[in-house]
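The methods section describes the discrete structure representation at length, but only in general terms. An entry of this sort, consisting of the sequence and the corresponding backbone structure tokens, reads as follows:
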Amino acid sequence: MLLPRLIPCLDVDSGRVVKGIRFQGLRDAGDPVERAAAYAAQGADELVLLDVSATPEGRGHALATVRAVRRVLPLPLAVGGGVRSAADAERLLEAGADKVAVNTAAVVRPALIDELAATFGRQCTVLALDAARRPGGGWETVVRSGRERTALDAVAWAAEAAGRGAGEILLTSWDRDGTGEGYDLELIAAVRGAVAVPIIASGGAAGPAHMAAALAAGADAVLAASILHDGHTTVGELKRELAGRGVEVRS
């Protein structure tokens, strides 16, 4: 079995790393190239780079940022934001991405996942699934960088996307994003029961206890942003603390 991964996430807007709570109130969190280099040096296993304004602004991903990050990053790089076609994905891969994440465009046109998987392989095709709890139970899919809720059941959508060729699910809890309250463990477990592909848990991590809980709930990797950007800890410290809790991680 592959060991769990610890993955820093860079949400980028206008060439700067940003972070907020539930995708709102974004604040500046640094330079993406500097952040990428620092997290690689700290022992990150991969990096996720999301252009959070590309879809709302109706444009493609800022390729210059991808190229600049790639130059300093000796790790796998997943990139998302503004991907509407195989041609968009190809440009990101040529700029240095190893995987391409799709969200809104795949909800609008699910066949996009089939096309990406057929053209570039399942290993390059990631579904970025943002999920918000419904008052009556369950979760609905959120699109356009958290701005729009849909009637699409998040767990069913994860299963459909995996069936269409998504090789990984980047699963973000809209409710927990940026709160430090921990990952939505029920959401992770529900999606784990619906798909066989790897799940990256995202949204709410404040420390190693939250990460260990997410992995126990069925995640294969854990994403972190605020706690790293704000200097509360480092990737290396998180890995050491996870190991101390009996969670075997990559060194």
Notes: The mean pLDDT is 92. The first strand starts at residue 5 and ends at 13.
